[in-house]
Amino acid sequence: MTSESVSREQIVSVTTEYLAAELKIPATGIGGTDVLRELPGADSMKMLRVVSKLERRWNVEFDDEAIFAVKTVDELVLMVEKSVSGDLAAS
């Protein structure tokens, strides 16, 4: 999948869908400024499962430090967006 074919809206939609499914909460209850660890039912294992699904979905791999630095839904979306567009070059 090329970066031209992936919009921010698609990333937001898929990320929200994965979070909702993993946490068993309505996607409509998840907002961009929500703190991930404060979402109902959130724990580190569930968040890692969401990240793993996102990596498989977009065929990317996130840096561990970047994953643990993410605090909000918007930050997670931004991390995915940068990875999909190739802005996170491996150093």
Automatic annotation (TrEMBL):
Describe the location of the Carrier domain by residue ranges.
6-84
Annotated InterPro entries = ACP-like_sf (IPR036736), PP-bd_ACP (IPR009081)
Mention any Pfam family matching this sequence.
PP-binding
PROSITE patterns according to UniProt: CARRIER
Protein name as catalogued: Acyl carrier protein
Recorded source organism is: Amycolatopsis speibonae
Organism placement in taxonomy: Bacteria, Bacillati, Actinomycetota, Actinomycetes, Pseudonocardiales
